Structures are given as C-alpha cells and as structure tokens.
Amino acid sequence: MPVIPFSPPRIDDKIVDAVNEALRSGWITTGPRTKRFESEISRYCGADKTLCLNSWTNAVELFLRWYGIGPGDEVIVPAYTYAATGNVVLHTGAKLILADSGETALAAIESIRSCITERTKVIMPVDIGGVPFDYPGLYSLLDEPDIRSKFVAGSTWQEKMGRILVLADAAHSFGAKREGRLSGAMADVTGFSFHAVKNLSTAEGGALSFKLPSALDSDKVYSELAILGLHGQTKDALSKMQAGAWRYDIIHPGYKCNMTDIQAALGLVELERYETETLPRRRAQSLLYDMYLSGFDWAELPRHEALDYSSSWHLYMLRIKGIEESQRDAIIAECAANGVSTNVHFVPLPMFTAYRERGYRIEDSPEAYRQYANEISLPLYYDLTGEQIDTVCRVLAAAVEKVCS
Ligand SMILES: *Cc1c(COP(=O)(O)O)cnc(C)c1O
Fold this sequence. Notes:
Elements: H1 13-24, H2 32-45, E1 49-53, H3 56-66, E2 74-78, H4 83-92, E3 95-99, H5 109-115, E4 120-123, H6 135-143, H7 145-148, H8 156-161, E5 165-169, E6 177-178, E7 181-182, E8 189-193, E9 206-210, H9 218-228, H10 237-240, H11 261-272, H12 274-293, E10 299-300, E11 305-306, E12 309-310, E13 316-320, H13 325-337, H14 353-356, H15 366-373, E14 375-378, H16 386-404
Parallel strand pairs: 2-3, 2-4, 4-5, 5-8
Antiparallel strand pairs: 1-9, 6-7, 6-12, 8-9, 10-13, 11-12, 13-14
Helix pairs in contact: 1-11, 2-11, 3-4, 12-16, 13-16
The structure holds pyridoxal-5'-phosphate.
C-alpha cells in the first residue's frame, strides 16, 4: 500500500540546479547568495533588516544572549509550542514562564497578562500552524500604564527598548498576514525557521527579521548580531577574501551559526515562488480538506482565514470533537496502518520529562492540554495531490468510525 508521508520537502530540478550553481560558483559558506536572500526576505515581509543563520533555534538564542537575557530575567512563552521555544530560554539561565492557550491554540492575551512581572524582559508568542498571533492585542496590553511601569531594563539595549520586547516565533508563519502586515513586520523581532518540514526550506536554516522602535537602529543590531554569530570576528570570510585584507579582531567570545550560500541557494528559489506557488497551493489543499471533512460532525476544522488575518497554511490541525488522548492515539495508529502518516502539534512543554523535572505541571496549562489531546495534523506539502487528500480523508474517517464506535 502506498504511504502518504506527512511533510516531505519540495525538491525539483530548480532546487537541484540552484544548489549545483552555488557549489560550482566556488563560494559555499556565507556570501553573496546569503546576503541576497536576506535583503529579499526583508523586502518580501516588510522588515527593516534580516539576518540569516543556521536555524531558528540558534538565531533566537543568539538574540536573547545579545539582548542580555540571563539569570534573574523572565521570558514568557506559550505552554503549547515546540520544545525549541522553551529550550532556548532555559539555555540562557533565565526563568521560563509558560502562558496557557485560550479558545484557540494560540496563547491567550489574558494568560500572558497574568505572567508579567518586574522581571519580564521578552514575550515570545508562537504563530501555531501558520496562524498569526494577535500582536496588535499584545502591543495594546504592553501599552497599559500599569504594565509599562513594571518594566525594569537590565542592559543598554533593554533601556533603549523601554518596555518588554516582543519576539515572534514565526517558525510556521512565513507569509502570514494580520491587519495588512506580514509576518516579519508584526513584532519587534521575528524568528523564522527554514527547517526541512517548514513552508520555505533551506534544509536547515533560520532568520531574524527586525522591525524595531527607532531608538534601536536595525542596521546596528544586524551587524552586531552578524558578528556575534561568527565568533565575534570583525570580518566575515567574504571580506577577508580581498587580497591583503587578512587582519581582524575578536570583539566578543562569539558563537558559530552563520548560514551557508548552499542553504541560501535553496531559499532564493523557494522565496521566488512562495507567493505564486507555495501559498496558493497550500491554501487550495486546505480548502479541499475543509470540503471533505465539513461533512463529518466529529470534525473541528482549523481556521486559516478571517477578516483580519490569513495564515501561511503551514499545518492542517484537525481536532476530533469529544475524544480523549488515548482515542486520538488509536486513530493515528489506525491511519498509519493504512498508509497515512499524521502528526500531533504539540505536546505541551510541561508533559516532557525535562520540563517536569524543572517543576512545570500540565495542570497549570489546562487549555494547552485541551488543544493537544484531540489534535491530529494531516499531511500538507507541495506535492500532495487531490487524490491523496481524498485518500487521507477516507482513511481518517474509517479510523474515527472504528475507534469511536
Ligand atoms: C521548527 C520550530 C522551531 C525550530 O526551528 P529550527 O529551525 O529547527 O531551529 C521553533 N519553533 C517552532 C514552533 C517550530 O515548529
């Protein structure tokens, strides 16, 4: 029986040719392709500046460390997210504060409000499945006088910011829009992931896009972070290449997380066809799922569009009404036995050993648990055909029937 995978990357001749060209150009580490990818991302999403790095994880950790986040600080992250969002905060030694979900998978503004203290420096909302978080709502909260007056800066950059910084986990939401703004221009800083399963992939990769208040100069922030991501070295490989320009300084004991031009070569192809091919295709596939599944009263469909937002259609996050976790797991096993791969987004952070050991309890995030327990993500990727979507829905419906009757 043919197996329908969950989310293979789109690898066609265009991608293979672009990678070949990059290899044959003789320049394979950070160079002209990476710089072009950065400026094209900024242009596409309306950010002031973009820095490409080797993953979302390293990009966001680099930013948090540069911003002076460490022991004594608090960073608010939703309980309902991928482990990367929480792990990077734990690496810095800051205290990770988990906000609960609300009616939807996204963190509830009211829960975020209850998490804010004088130690809060950064809030990291997650655009789950590609649906953009309510950033305008969060900025209004941060503008409330009693929230503003709580803020205490712990570094020069934090002082310039003068309030809690919003760092969007946009690993899923490249191309998503809310109130006329694209992901990348909705928060102070936006972290993108170009990992193999994401909408736009460079195999592995990530980026930080900046839309900072004018007191923080995005160009300056960009160049400081680019240096910190390359051993704190004042010259990158490209500028050291000029004949005789060998001398450089190390101004911080930096990290090593730059993007290669081979990765950027993939990214440039994917970005060029993102609006014309990737997003319309994912939208059409999601609508086809909606059409098939809306006929079942057990199906709670994901909401990808409304008057004020549109998603990047990263995940088709279906929920089965009224089932428990064990029934969900049985449905997934039944689908797998019939050649359909599905997935679960996400196991809330407190359910993992590493987080339990650090004192987090799922009882404190009941809505995140509720979002997780009956969720099944269906296959969604560029090459998925209408016929395969039909198969997925038939196999799923039979599995639900078998497990729930
Ligand atoms: C994939 C993902 C990340 C991590 O991205 P990497 O590029 O693999 O580091 C972070 N957050 C969320 C929500 C993700 O899905």
